[in-house]
């Protein structure tokens, strides 16, 4: 097992599977896509199985020469930061494909749909695993194109508008990032590192302090758009509400995390000075976003738009934690990436189930469904409670750590951000109760034949619900593997910042403990 | 000493899971047996460990069981571990004991409900969450239990989920409780920042108790080395958490609405679980509150205001359960009063006696409501003494205990608290503490008034309602009515499953005070290893006797006024009073105020931002940028004439320019 | 003969070709004009190769000839197919690419 190039398999399997899907007959393509996604999940879990707790650095790494003269190589690595993200990606891809059965049965361009889904998933696996900046950029684009096509081809009535907006926002960001990547490599070349895009080498070489802020901003343009930092989020509500729910599961559940992940993986170690300078601004924007999105979720009537704001609000917590620079915050941020993926994926799947059953997405057209859909009501309630951060379910531990870290970094930002638990409870209950409880089924829903969830929906939701409970009871599963890796960027940030006095958010001493070797 | 807390948690967990997963397939008898059985098991275990605790020396009465390490992150190290100490032992007895009686009562009360199994599964979950809350060994699992209790109340208040009023009430309860969760979270953050740990052992020093005597909380604890401002901040946020859970001003708004739930739920929320959590929290964190006098003043102000407010509002209620709801708020305020003057053990003492008589009162109210086919409006009751004599006697015991009449349990606990307050006032000589004492006395008088108003409205006078149809037999009832001319023909006393718990609670209400009399403050002694309390007025002091007499006197005065006003048949409200009564009955308009000042402006702000920020600024901005590019390309595309020869001209011009450039700057060659 | 003579002829040929491309509307004639320009360049290449006694100029001439041959093949094919479909090969009428 250990001889297999697992990382390469995790990335390449969906991409090659996508090519095959194009030539398969329509009847077989759903099964094929499901099989590929399942194998990808198995490969990701195999990596998890050989991953050791308490060890820093890339525990599994693979490197193949590609364009060595240009410093571009097929270099992949797994550490605590991305381990759970690739599993999450594989899992959600499988569930999203499983939930797309309707497309398989009576949709147009079925083969292309599943090929694009697999390609999207494969691209994101590459984004998470690449440790070569150029390779990372390639995967970044591989991820964007299928997402764009999926929104634009299979979406709702305003899909063209949503897709173009999505492309404009993300393309501007990623072009700026491309320029920054080239500049970083050339700066490293000037400093004698040779022609290389290799991330560890570039971190070891360091980026001149004078150049950091601009380069950071170029990276941040790409990442902040993806993660939906206020006010760069405008694409998200449109894309989330126009795209088919199965696609949103991947976009909101996984793709949004690539932004947060990018900050952690690239920005923090590469631009330690700049992130400190930018931290207050990003912190304030994140807090504004957290509360603002919660408020928008409170008044939204369209289910998917509501969930889009829920997702953005949660992403704000992650961003706030990333820029808090202490162990609890980093732990919380990475945990929340995973937990939020699980929860928002489940929420969109449930919203999709409602839409499939009733043909409506308007909250005001639902009510009293719990009597007819008792099983779905239970699942929906579990996920809703997890989404509002109920202690004992998965989201709580991450959210708690994120808020705690933010609070330690900046009292006021942390406290104000924590306030969001109140509107969060409000909007989730408004959503859940509005759908499930109340006097009677309203016209739209009663017109359709409303069935409770069948075996397929049950199978799709079961793993997510199980994770919600298990990770709520044993969040140590996550932190034990995340923490050794996240102390690395912390210490890098702390060590390379001699002028600690001018920094507004000093790292605490505990983040420095014994992480000298972890920076390797 | 045995520590059985994991098993006490496991029992209701098993019940919750079994009923939640398979309850729908089980017959009602099995559901009842499982639902009540697991709580009975939990209660017996709690009794067992309580007895074993009594068998060891007081300084050995603390033990911690660690189940697993929940989370580590940097310095933060949180285990799922359970603490057994005198405080949690007493709380467990109350939670499981009174909880068990309420379970048994529910067998009769909910007998006709189609979702019988669901009800019992929720009840078990409630017990589980509350037991976790009181046995948690650290603030984080306190928060888990804290939120679990909130969830359980949400589920049970909204149990009849097709009623939109119940759904709204459930949501309100949950959201207001989340405000408390927020307070607790901030407090936890501050505790972690100050102490570097969240366990009670590290923060509150409950694990190293030395000696039988009440240890000063500052000995051996790092509390003194903490900045008092931080301690104050911790205390303030703990207070926010406590008042949200315990329904004190200004976060009490969920409690009256919570009456939308079935009556056993109200009993559970008001007596055994939920609202007592705030009182427990303050007692648990007594070390912090003792070290922060300002926080004590804050509690005192909130408690005094809440006690009076709730007692006044209770006087103007027409719904039988809402009277009791406001009464709970008022009684909880007594407990906080005691805690404000460091009489923590008396706060817990009143918590226990209140659990008996308030559960009893709710059960009686439930019996009345059940008998009248769901009627809750007291204006449509009256004259039920003849029909429900057993219920009446039970109710009378509860009412006398609530009104703190000698020798009922409420008398001992409430006068212990008032004695503590008076002692504090005497010690400090400060008028404001005397004012708190005055508020307590006034509330005592109002308590006597409103509970006996209720008694006379329900049981006294003549029946004022219409025909009663019980068990959905509408036609039969009206037939019976026309046949006998008696609208109450079908009204009947509660069955044994409802009545036996009432009897047990009545006995407890009568006798429960004897473990906390001024001569033998057993409960204070028992709690002293972990909960530090200052002693109240000694019995040797003549002022003690005066205070007790005054306390008893005002209560009787209140009862007397109730008799004057309602005991002789007039129940109506004069036209001049009507608007005032309506205003008071609505809770002094606080609900409307919140709606007008917070809820609606917030939603309006959201809508405004959606238009201004989302649509105009951001969406419009995006479209503006797009438009800019479109305009630019419209300009540039006129160059694309389509004539090949035009392009050739451009090529030649370009070539010429390049040549020209090198002629002008020859050195660049 | 001095190099300048060759260059003058080359320049004249190039100008004739350029003007031809610009003013004529028949693609065949424009083609011939382009050939004229290419050969003008070839001429100057040859002249300089002879003058500098270097072989590179020769190589470039061969390169240009090859490219010109390929270009003629493709170009004529396009012209023929356009003529087949439109019965008209006036370049000013072929303005579908107008923006």
Set out the fold topology:
The complex is a heterotrimer of chains A (520), B (669) and C (99).
Chain A lengths: L5 H18 L2 H24 L10 E8 L4 E7 L1 H19 L2 H6 L3 H20 L3 H22 L4 H32 L8 H7 L3 H19 L7 H8 L2 H26 L1 H28 L3 H20 L4 H32 L15 H14 L6 H16 L1 H8 L2 H16 L6 H5 L7 H19 L2 H20 L25
Antiparallel strand pairs in A: 1-2
Chain B lengths: L4 H18 L5 H27 L8 E11 L2 E9 L1 H24 L6 H20 L3 H19 L6 H32 L4 H4 L24 H18 L8 H4 L5 H10 L3 H9 L1 H5 L2 H22 L5 H21 L3 H28 L17 H14 L6 H20 L2 H29 L14 H11 L11 H16 L10 H6 L14 H25 L11 H8 L4 H47 L7 H21 L5
Antiparallel strand pairs in B: 1-2
Helix pairs in contact in B: 1-2, 1-4, 2-3, 2-4, 3-4, 3-10, 3-15, 3-20, 4-5, 5-6, 6-8, 8-11, 8-13, 10-15, 11-14, 11-15, 13-14, 13-18, 14-15, 14-17, 14-18, 15-16, 15-17, 15-20, 16-18, 16-20, 17-18, 17-22, 18-22
Chain C lengths: L2 H21 L3 H26 L3 H31 L13
Helix pairs in contact in C: 1-2, 2-3
What does it look like?
The complex is a heterotrimer of chains A (520), B (669) and C (99). Helix content of chain A is 73%, strand content 3%. By secondary structure, chain A is mostly helical. In chain A, helix 6 (133-154) runs antiparallel to helix 7 (159-190). Chain A is globular and about 70 Å long. With 669 residues, chain B is mostly helical. Chain B has a two-stranded antiparallel ribbon. Chain C is 79% helix and 0% strand. Chain C starts with a helix and ends in a 13-residue tail after the last helix. Chains A and B meet through helix 7, helix 10, helix 12, helix 14 and helix 16 of A and strand 1, helix 5, helix 6 and helix 24 of B.
């Amino acid at each position: 097992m250990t001889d297999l190039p697992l990382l390469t398999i995790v990335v390449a399997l969906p991409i090659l599977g996508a090519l095959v899907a194009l030539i398969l007959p329509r009847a077989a393509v759903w099964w094929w896509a499901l099989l590929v996604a399942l194998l990808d999940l198995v490969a990701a879990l195999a990596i998890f199985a050989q991953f050791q707790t308490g060890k820093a650095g890339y525990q599994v790494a693979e490197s193949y020469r590609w364009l060595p003269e240009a410093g571009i190589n097929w270099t992949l690595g797994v550490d605590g930061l991305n381990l759970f993200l690739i599993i999450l990606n594989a899992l959600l891809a499988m569930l999203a494909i499983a939930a797309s059965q309707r497309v398989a049965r009576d949709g147009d361009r079925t083969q292309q749909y599943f090929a694009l889904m697999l390609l999207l998933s494969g691209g994101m696996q590459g984004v998470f695993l690449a440790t070569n900046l150029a390779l990372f950029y390639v995967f970044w684009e591989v991820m964007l194109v299928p997402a764009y096509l999926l929104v634009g081809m299979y979406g709702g009535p305003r899909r063209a508008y949503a897709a173009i907006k999505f492309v404009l926002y993300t393309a501007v960001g990623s072009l700026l990032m491309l320029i920054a990547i080239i500049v970083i490599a050339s700066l490293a070349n000037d400093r004698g590192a040779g022609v290389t895009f290799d991330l560890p080498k570039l971190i070891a070489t360091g980026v001149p302090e004078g150049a950091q802020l601009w380069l950071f901003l170029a990276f941040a343009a790409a990442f902040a758009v993806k993660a939906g930092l206020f006010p760069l989020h405008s694409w998200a509500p449109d894309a989330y509400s126009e795209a088919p729910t199965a696609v949103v599961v991947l976009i909101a559940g996984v793709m949004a995390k690539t932004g947060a992940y990018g900050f952690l993986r690239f920005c923090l170690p590469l631009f330690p000075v700049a992130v400190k300078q930018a931290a207050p601004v990003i912190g304030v924007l994140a807090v504004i976003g957290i509360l603002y999105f919660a408020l928008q979720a409170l008044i939204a009537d369209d289910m998917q738009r509501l969930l889009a704001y829920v997702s953005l609000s949660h992403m704000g917590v992650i961003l706030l934690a990333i820029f808090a620079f202490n162990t609890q915050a980093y732990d919380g941020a990475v945990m929340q990436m995973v937990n939020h993926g699980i929860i928002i994926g489940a929420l969109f799947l449930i919203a999709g189930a409602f839409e499939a059953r009733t043909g409506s997405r308007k909250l005001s057209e639902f009510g009293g469904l719990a009597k007819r859909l008792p099983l779905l009501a239970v699942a929906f309630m579990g996920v809703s409670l997890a989404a509002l951060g109920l202690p004992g379910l998965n989201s709580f531990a991450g959210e708690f750590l994120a808020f705690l870290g933010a609070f330690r970094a900046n009292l006021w930002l942390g406290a104000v951000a924590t306030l969001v638990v109140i509107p969060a409870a409000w909007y989730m209950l408004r959503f859940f109760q509005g759908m499930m409880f109340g006097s009677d089924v309203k016209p739209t829903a009663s017109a359709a034949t409303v069935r409770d969830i069948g075996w397929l929906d049950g199978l799709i939701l079961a793993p997510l619900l199980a994770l919600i409970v298990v990770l709520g009871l044993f969040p140590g599963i996550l932190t034990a593997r995340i923490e050794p890796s996240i102390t690395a960027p912390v210490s890098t940030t702390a060590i390379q910042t001699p002028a600690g006095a001018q920094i507004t958010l000093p790292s605490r001493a505990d983040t420095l403990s014994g992480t000298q070797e972890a920076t390797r | 000493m045995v520590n059985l807390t994991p098993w006490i948690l496991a029992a209701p967990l098993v019940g919750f899971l079994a009923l939640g997963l398979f309850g729908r397939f089980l017959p009602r008898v099995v559901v009842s047996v499982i639902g009540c059985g697991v709580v009975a098991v939990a209660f017996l275990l709690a009794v067992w460990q309580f007895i074993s605790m009594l068998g060891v020396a007081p300084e050995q009465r603390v033990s911690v069981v660690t189940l697993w390490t929940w989370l580590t992150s940097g310095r933060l190290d949180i285990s799922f571990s359970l603490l057994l100490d005198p405080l949690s032992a007493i709380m467990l007895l109350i939670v499981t004991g009174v909880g068990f009686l309420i379970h048994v009562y529910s067998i009769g009360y909910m007998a006709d409900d189609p979702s019988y199994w669901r009800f019992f599964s929720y009840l078990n979950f409630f017990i589980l969450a509350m037991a976790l809350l009181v046995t948690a060994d650290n603030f984080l699992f306190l928060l888990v239990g804290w939120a679990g209790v909130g969830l359980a109340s949400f589920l049970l208040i909204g149990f009849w989920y097709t009623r939109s009023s119940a759904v709204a009430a459930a949501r309100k309860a949950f959201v207001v409780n989340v405000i408390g969760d927020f307070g607790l979270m901030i407090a936890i953050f501050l505790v972690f920042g100050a102490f570097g740990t969240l366990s009670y052992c590290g923060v509150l020093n409950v694990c190293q108790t030395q000696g039988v005597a009440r240890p000063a909380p500052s000995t051996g604890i790092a509390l003194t080395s903490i900045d008092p401002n931080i301690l104050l901040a911790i205390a303030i946020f703990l207070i926010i958490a406590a008042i949200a859970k315990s329904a004190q001003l200004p976060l009490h708004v969920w409690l009256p609405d919570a009456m939308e739930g079935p009556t056993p739920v109200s009993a559970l929320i008001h007596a055994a679980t939920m609202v007592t959590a705030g009182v427990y929290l303050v007692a648990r964190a007594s070390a912090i509150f003792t070290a922060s006098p300002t926080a004590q003043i804050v509690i005192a102000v909130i408690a005094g205001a809440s006690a009076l407010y709730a007692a006044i509002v209770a006087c103007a209620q027409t719904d039988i359960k809402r009277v009791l709801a406001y009464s709970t708020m008022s009684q909880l305020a007594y407990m906080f009063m005691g805690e404000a003057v460091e009489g923590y053990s008396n706060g817990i003492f009143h918590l226990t006696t209140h659990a008996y008589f308030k559960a009893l009162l709710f059960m009686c109210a439930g019996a009345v409501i059940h008998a009248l086919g769901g009627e809750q409006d007291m204006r449509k009751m009256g004259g039920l003494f003849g029909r429900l004599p057993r219920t009446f006697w039970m109710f009378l015991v509860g009412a006398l205990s609530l009104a703190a009449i000698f020798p009922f349990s409420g008398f001992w606990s409430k006068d212990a608290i008032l004695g503590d307050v008076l002692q504090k006032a005497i010690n400090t000589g400060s008028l404001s503490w005397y004012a708190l004492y005055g508020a307590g006395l006034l509330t005592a008088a109002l308590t006597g008034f409103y509970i006996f108003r209720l008694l006379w409205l329900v049981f006294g006078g003549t029946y004022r309602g219409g025909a009663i149809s019980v068990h959905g037999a509408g036609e039969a009832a009206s037939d019976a009515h026309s046949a006998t001319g008696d609208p109450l023909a079908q009204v009947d006393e509660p069955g044994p499953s409802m009545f036996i718990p009432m009897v047990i609670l009545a006995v407890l209400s009568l006798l429960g005070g004897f473990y906390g009399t001024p001569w033998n403050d057993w409960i204070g002694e028992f709690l002293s290893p972990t909960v530090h309390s200052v002693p109240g007025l000694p019995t040797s002091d003549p002022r003690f006797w005066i205070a007790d007499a005054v306390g008893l006197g005002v209560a009787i005065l209140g009862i007397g006024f109730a008799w004057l006003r309602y005991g002789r048949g007039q129940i109506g409200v004069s036209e001049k009073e009507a608007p005032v009564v309506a205003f008071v009955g609505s809770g002094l308009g606080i609900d409307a105020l919140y709606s007008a000042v917070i809820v609606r402006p917030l939603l309006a702000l959201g809508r405004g931002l959606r238009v201004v920020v989302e649509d105009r600024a951001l969406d419009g901005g995006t479209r503006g940028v797009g438009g800019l590019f479109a305009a630019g390309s419209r300009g540039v595309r006129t160059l694309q004439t389509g004539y090949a020869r035009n392009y050739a001209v451009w090529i030649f011009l370009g070539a010429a320019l390049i040549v020209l450039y090198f002629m002008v700057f020859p050195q660049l060659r | 003969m001095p190099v300048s003579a060759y260059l003058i002829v080359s320049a004249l040929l190039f100008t004739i070709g350029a003007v031809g491309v610009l003013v004529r509307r028949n693609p065949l004639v424009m083609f011939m004009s382009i050939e004229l320009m290419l050969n003008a360049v070839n001429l100057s290449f040859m002249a300089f190769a002879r003058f500098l006694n270097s072989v590179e100029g020769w190589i470039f001439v061969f390169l240009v000839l090859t490219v010109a041959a390929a270009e003629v093949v493709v170009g004529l094919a396009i012209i023929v197919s356009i003529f087949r479909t439109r019965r008209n090969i006036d370049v000013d009428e072929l303005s579908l690419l107008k923006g």
